[in-house]
Structures are given as C-alpha cells and as structure tokens.
Amino acid sequence: xxxxxxxxxxxxxxxxxxxxxxxxxxxxxxxxxxxxxxxxxxxxxxxxxxxxxxxxxxxxxxxxxxxxxxxxxxxxxxxxxxxxxxxxxxxxxxxxxxxxxxxxxxxxxxxxxxxxxxxxxxxxxxxxxxxxxxxxxxxxxxxxxxxxxxxxxxxxxxxxxxxxxxxxxxxxxxxxxxxxxxxxxxxxxxxxxxxxxxxxxxxxxxxxxxxxxxxxxxxxxxxxxxxxxxxxxxxxxxxxxxxxxxxxxxxxxxxxxxxxxxxxxxxxxxxxxxxxxxxxxxxxxxxxxxxxxxxxxxxxxxxxxxxxxxxxxxxxxxxxxxxxxxxxxxxxxxxxxxxxxxxxxxxxxxxxxxxxxxxxxxxxxxxxxxxxxxxxxxxxxxxxxxxxxxxxxxxxxxxxxxxxxxxxxxxxxxxxxxxxxxxxxxxxxxxxxxxxxxxxxxxxxxxxxxxxxxxxxxxxxxxxxxxxxxxxxxxxxxxxxxxxxxxxxxxxxxxxxxxxxxxxxxxxxxxxxxxxxxxxxxxxxxxxxxxxxxxxxxxxxxxxxxxxxxxxxxxxxxxxxxxxxxxxxxxxxxxxxxxxxxxxxxxxxxxxxxxxxxxxxxxxxxxxxxxxxxxxxxxxxxxxxxxxxxxxxxxxxxxxxxxxxxxxxxxxxxxxxxxxxxxxxxxxxxxxxxxxxxxxxxxxxxxxxxxxxxxxxx
Length: 698
What we know:
- By secondary structure, the chain is an alpha+beta fold.
- About 20% of the residues lie in helices and about 25% in strands.
- It has an eight-stranded antiparallel sheet.
- The chain has three domains: about 5-270, Sandwich (Immunoglobulin-like), CATH 2.60.40.1760; about 275-605, TIM Barrel (Alpha-Beta Barrel), CATH 3.20.20; about 615-695, Immunoglobulin-like (Sandwich).
- The longest helix is centred in the middle third of the chain and has 16 residues, at about 405-420.
- β1 (about 30) and β2 form a beta hairpin.
C-alpha cells in the first residue's frame, strides 16, 4: 500500500523508543488468564497474547512505550468538515517498566512510569463475552493539559489491518496513517481546499481492525482516535486516543475471520434485518405527485421490477442554481408541492404495490417552523452564551437538537411518528448526524468532543424508536450514512455517502467497492450506495450503466437523482439505458432469494452480504489485499468495471473452478486473468457451478 504523508502524524504519533538508552530490562514473565489465554511480558513491558490453543492474538510492540501527549486543541468546523491543530504539544514516554503481577481474580497488571509525573497502568483480563481479552489502559499525569494516550501495537511481518468503518481507498490499511472522527467526507477528497477532505475523511469511521490471521482489535472509545499503521516505524502500529479516561481495547479471538465479525456483533450490537421487499430495487424520484406517478407508470410500462420509490423532496426544497436542487431541512410535508401526500402513498401501495420512502435529517433551520418552539423549550444545542448554537448550512443557518435532553427526543419523535402514522411512509433516509460542534454546550453537561462521535447513534435512535413502536412487525426501512462504534444496533441499512458522480479514484465510482467491503468487515452487513453518485457530475450514460451493474450485485439496488437531477443521466434517458437498467434490475431480482438467505444469516452473525475475498478464502494469502473485487455471499465473485472507457479488466480468481456468468466459460482459480468486459458484461464469476439462470435474463 502506498504511504500517505499526513501532517498530523508528525506531531501526534509517538515513534518507537528503542536503543541503548532504554532503562534496564526486568526478567520476562508469563501468565495465564482464567479462560486459558496466555500472556507473555518481556523485560520492558511488551505483551504477546495467545489463545488457549496457542494461536497468536497479537500484542504490543517490543521497545516501544505508552506515550502521553499534552497540547491545546484548536478546532474549526466548516459545513461539517473539521480541522484539528495542536498547539504547544509536548510528549512524554512512559519508558520505565516497573513490573507486573497477577491479582487473585486473574487480572494481570503492568506498570510504567515516565517523566513529568506520567504513570501508565495496563490491566489484562477476560472480557465478559468469553471470546475476547480486555486490555484496560489507564494513564495519569501531573500535567493538567495532558489529553492523549498513544499505544504501540505490534506490526510484525504478517500483520494486516482491515476495517476501520467506511474507508474508501483500500481494505488493508497497513502502511497508512489517518484520524478517525465522524465528519463530512469533503468534496473530492483531493486534500486541496478547506472542505476537500482526504482519503480517510468519512461519515462512519470506527477504531477497529481485523487481522486476517483470525483476530480483531476494537479500541472502545468515543474519542477522536489517530492511527499510524506501521507507516513511520515498520515495527509499530500506533493508536492514539485523545482522552485519558480508562481506555478499553478488546482483542476478539476468532479463530476464523468470520468468527471475529460475529464476535464483534455480539459485543457492539447488530442491525435488524430489512423486510423482504427491501431487497428489490428502489427508485429515487421527486417533483410532486404527478412526477412520482409518471415515474411509476414508466417503470411499469418498461417492465422494470421495483418495490419502492424514495421521495426526498416531500419536505420541499430550493434551486440553488439552474441545475442544483437542495432540500428544506424539516420534518413536515411541503403541502404546496405534495397537497395530498397520504393519498399519494395509499395510491402507490394499493394500486401499484409500491412502498414509499422519504427523507429526514437532524438540522433545525432558523427560518423554518421547528426552530422557534424548540428554542423556546431549550431543546437545541447551545453556545457558551446559552443561546442556540447557530452555524451555516448550504441554504441558510440553523442548529441541531440536544439529544442529551429527553424532551428533545420527544419533540423530534413526535414528528417522525407522524411521518408513519399520518403520511403512511414505510421508512426514510436518516441523513447527516456528523455536524455536532465540539464546543457546543449540552443539557446534561457532557463534553461535546466526546459526544460528537456518538451523536449519529442519538439521531438514529429517534427513528428506530419510532419504527419499533409504530411498526413492531419490522415492516419498515431506515437507511443512514453516519456512525461510530456501537451505532450498529440503532441502524438498519447504511449507505456509503455522497460520492462524486464521476470516475475519480478519490471520491467517485472506484471508492464504492472498498467502502462497502470495509463496512462489512466492521459489522455492517446491510449496505447500499447511490446510482450513480450524488454530488459533482453531471453523470454520464456510461457511468450510470456501470454503476447500475455494480448495484445489481449487492443487497440494495437504489437510484438517486443526485444534486443535479435534471442534468444527471437516468434509467429512462434513452432506449439503450432502459434496456440495460431493466436487465440488471431483473438480475438483482433473480438474486433476491439468495440475498434474503444471506440477510437471514447476517441478522444473527453480522456476516456481511458483500464480503472481502479473504472471508471466503481464508488460507489464500493473495486474496487479502484485493480491494476492488468482492464476494456476494459464498459463490459469486464480482469485479466491477471502475475505469471510464474500459472494455476489459484484470480479475484475481481465488483457488477453485470459476464459471464466467455471461459466457459459461470455466476458469481455474489461484491466478489473475484478463477478461473482456464491455458494457452489459461486468466481470462476475460463480464458484463451482454455471449460472445459466442469470445469463438468460434479458
């Protein structure tokens, strides 16, 4: 993997302290936890874990020491994009390992000391799940400014680092360094400009990785976390957390990678299975009831299978330019645009068998109806003066509910409940959640910096509580984009955010595949994306067709008109596109029974529907670094065409016999092949059997 130089790494990630100046080593020690986990401690406090069967579970880096950082943070937010600058940073290594012991309850305790009153303690114990070891780090210091703790994990030759939530550039992040913080992804991810973002700016980060040898590491914290995965020092994977509270690191034992993902779901929660109809195509449409009904009629005339329309402009909106349309941020209908929304929903359901999905986000605009009553009842986040914390949106200014106050939930949920009970909606896109300012004043006195990454789950909880109450049979859909560790139980389907409607490898179509895979490795099995992107563009015919091919081989095929709805390409723009879209919608529909069976499995195991190759081919080392192909369940290998103008691509086939779905030709795996892939023939292979059923679909 390429090394991405990030400026923050130079100031915030401690380098390994090795050499002759280290304090004299103590005699090594060895311990066994009550569950049989074996812990070796070297003379300077580096630990190595083995499970009861003797299998390695990683550990900390020899010759590197816990490090405490002291600094002042300066944080700026521009439209949900955050910049962090550390001022006056000083770092102190706890280099003096003073010993270890085992308590009567089996807990192993290690101690380090450093200058400036730094003291670090590590407790190693059996976690409550019985399939994990808990490493609890506690750091104290006499420096009142101290606010970060860096931990050195071992980076040996076989170490791998996959997961980290929605990451868009790769799957094995070894050799890279980046922060984990919930925010907007930035525009274009070029690293140029105040809101451009970079390769790792993401709505849904997670301090979590899976090692392909069969264990996982969860840094269980709500705080901003920075990782340097063997970039600056090939021996050390540094994890730095901006919080000195006791810090839990859970090492999940596996032994198989799929066991690790199940254990992660057992620990942090897992999504509820969507209803069966959710696995048929959804069509994005807006413009009022006539436009919605005309779209449905066109789909039916073209014999395109679909189960739902999702209509984001039910709240109204405004044209920012002649091409760009954006929404009003509120939780009530625009009755001028949709004068009888309940009637439209009933017509779609009764006459066409079509479900209605809508849109909601947590913003409260100053110029719309929610701001005044919520401000009057003190239901909004506040600034240091006690006034509502107002910041700019794209269209106007506003703020967010303070979900640390129960009354704020009650207000929001009343309106969300009306979306189901009054309007008849079957669900909605639960957008945003990433913008909580770090200096907001919250009702319960919590530090907004530590609530920030948890705010998405607070926002998602409002929708989930409504649906669990109003539709306890599970006949509903919610799809979200933001998140952090333990948001999983509040969510259902996660879409990977606002890609650019282009082919760029930083933020366009090529970023979709690794993001889907990494979310799956992070315990998120139900995923989707916008066909064909949201911002930028306009999308082209070729882009739309290639994006459709990708979406057909996933859990949820869902279109979006994007930020330029009139200019972007669409499924019905010409006869060739209609035929192409109809065919791949039918392919997706034909895969429905398989996808639903995979969804049943995911609901209890968290095993993703879109799977990294290494989940299915655990012993195949070559599969581990593949990030532009995936398995749809255990049999179908999908290698989308992600390059403009390409009519072929290289495909790595793991060991086994593979049948090219569109020709029936057999290929032996364990090698890379070059395959023709014109439009309409995306590289898809079936393991062990020919898929003439898919080939026959027109």
